[in-house]
From TrEMBL:
Entry-linked InterPro entries: Cbr1-like_FAD-bd_dom (IPR008333), FAD-bd_FR_type (IPR017927), Flavoprot_Pyr_Nucl_cyt_Rdtase (IPR001709), FNR_nucleotide-bd (IPR039261), Globin (IPR000971), Globin-like_sf (IPR009050), Globin/Proto (IPR012292), MRET (IPR050415)
Record carries keyword Transport: yes
Gene source species: Rhodococcoides yunnanense
Family per record: Belongs to the globin family.
PROSITE patterns: FAD_FR (PS51384), GLOBIN (PS01033)
E.C. no: 1.14.12.17
Origin: domain of life: Bacteria
Gene3D superfamilies: Globins, Nucleotide-binding domain of ferredoxin-NADP reductase (FNR) module, Translation factors
Protein's recorded name: nitric oxide dioxygenase
Residues covered by the Globin domain: 1-139
Length: 387
């Protein structure tokens, strides 16, 4: 355990350094430069383009330092990070080696006035705890670093959205609501996080809903270049969104775009049970055409009266460039509501008596959290993934 003084020095120092908008990216680049200079053989473990890795690196650091005094939250997060990095060929020894590179990078940006002997000792102590937790998880994990899977269907629902179905070489033991890291043959060594849209099953079937990110390296290839027969790699599961049945509370789920996938998987798993809490699922998109899976959700709700599906769009009509047919709501479904989904949801109150899950783009999650906080929703009732 770290003492309060050590945690305060590390947390305060990190926040002060990354306060400037351009520093997080520079800090990340400096870390990897120090790491590869000290251990040149490490470079071959990473892709040529490291923009996404650098971004996630700083986000992860911020999350860890913010919760250093909350072991129940930070330890599982570090253990998941340690296991997840095995897909790159990284072992526990690599994590311990990386601590000195991070200290060297941080010292460069902190400056001599901030970087005292006490601060350096605090960083050494904190990073020892962090790297040991990740190293132990990586070295003791019994699951393979990743599974191979074959694309059996690629369905282009929109110009920028596809449903990809695969058959894995072995059953992947994930829980509905978790996410996995995926590598495709068109972009070797570039891994991207996706949430399975169906529960795990013994037949190795898995489904992903992929939205093309403008300027992205991987998602455009997933949407436009994927072919039946392609071989994908899928890492062990991460994350922990779930419905807690022990507390006997009903559930509010808020989905933005393909953020529907992990919520959909949970609802499908619940449909296999005889007794469930009530679930209100708000499914949102910018345009009506973005509500791509309403028919499936409507069929689920017809045979599961505990499930209510509410469609939401920010715009009343499809964009001028959309050439597909107008998407009609299934007969009997709740009428479509309009506006930003956070504002729409909070028209019905604070939902303070519900378990709440939010999944979508980072901006959608942030604005929805803000809307809920504004009406008094207890933040401890809300689940969303750290990134």
């Amino acid at each position: 355990m770290l003492d309060a003084r050590t945690i305060s020095l590390v947390r305060t120092g990190f926040k002060s350094v990354v306060a400037s908008p351009d520093v997080p990216a520079r800090l990340s680049r400096s870390f990897y430069a120090h790491l590869f200079a000290e251990y040149p053989d490490f470079r071959s473990l990473f892709p040529a383009s490291m923009d996404s890795l650098r971004e996630h690196f700083v986000l992860a650091l911020g999350y860890v330092f913010e919760h250093l005094d909350d072991t129940d939250r930070v330890e599982p997060f570090l253990e998941q990070l340690g296991r997840d990095h095995r897909k790159h060929g990284i072992s526990g020894a690599h994590f311990r080696a990386g601590s000195s590179a991070l200290i060297s990078a941080f010292r460069t940006f902190a400056g001599t006035e901030m970087w005292t002997d006490e601060v350096e000792t605090a960083w050494h102590d904190a990073l020892t705890v962090v790297s040991n937790a990740m190293a132990a998880a990586a070295d003791n994990d019994e699951l393979p670093p990743y599974w191979s899977a074959t694309v059996v269907e690629h369905q282009r629902l929109l110009d920028d959205l596809a449903v990809v179905r695969l058959k894995t070489d072995g059953e992947i033991p994930y829980f509905p609501g978790q996410y996995v890291s995926v590598q495709i043959p068109q972009r070797p060594k570039l891994w991207r996080y996706l949430s399975p849209a169906i529960p795990s099953n013994p037949y190795g079937e898995i489904e992903f809903h992929v939205r093309r990110v403008s300027g992205g390296w991987v998602s455009p290839a997933m949407v436009t270049e994927t072919r039946v027969g392609d071989r994908w790699s899928i890492s062990p599961p991460l994350g922990g969104m779930y419905v807690d049945r022990a507390i006997h509370e009903d559930v509010l789920m808020i989905a933005g775009g393909t953020g529907l996938a992990p919520l959909r998987a949970q609802v499908m798993e619940m449909a296999q049970r005889s007794n469930n809490p009530r679930v209100h699922l708000f499914v949102s998109g910018t345009y009506p055409c973005d509500l791509y899976d309403l028919d499936t959700l409507w069929q689920l709700s017809l045979s599961n009266p505990w499930l209510t599906v509410v469609p939401v769009t920010e715009e009343l009509e499809d964009p001028w460039w959309y050439s597909g047919p107008a998407r009609e709501l299934p007969w009997g479904m709740h009428h479509r509501l309009h506006g930003a989904v956070g504002k729409v949801v909070t028209r019905f109150g604070s939902w303070a008596d519900r378990q709440i899950q939010i999944c979508g783009s980072p901006s959608m999650v942030r604005t929805t959290l803000y809307a809920l906080r504004k009406v008094g929703t207890p933040m401890e009732h809300i689940q969303h993934d750290p990134f």
